[in-house]
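Quarterly update from the structural biology core.
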Amino acid sequence: MSLTGKKVLSFVSDDFEDLELWYPILRLREAGAIVHLIAEEAHHKYIGKYGVPAESDYTFSDVNPEDYDAVVVPGGWSPDKLRRFPEVISIIQHFHENQKPIGQICHAGWVLISAGILKGVHVTSTPGIKDDMTNAGAIWHNEPVVVDGHIVSSRRPPDLPDYLKELIKVLEDK
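Predicted structure, tokenized:
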């Protein structure tokens, strides 16, 4: 398995886009990665937009980002909640400063915007936040997946297969 020994964080809060949380987690685990869900509360059940639950493993402050190889930010409405936590912003900034893979899909770009890491970065997202992305200095593309160094971005659920192929490739190379 290509990601054996790799550790990945995924954020979770209520109103995540169900497929954008679970598809990456399952694909990364199938490839051999250990994936931990982190949230405001540990061992708490969070509910996705379509009712699929996800239980967090740890709180944001329980984890040391140095112990992880990548972070994944799911979309839905949860990114608007997640970006309000200083710990979330700090984790994203750590991954960016250390050039570790950051995966983001759909509205997850809001978290990267709040972390202040998108100036000059080629990305995609749901078209609904294109203006937010470009106003943050990103170079936005309407493509299923865009890879700019360690940042892998995607638009929406139909793009998940392309997104995970690229995210896994970037993670394999780190």
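The longest strand covers residues 34-39.
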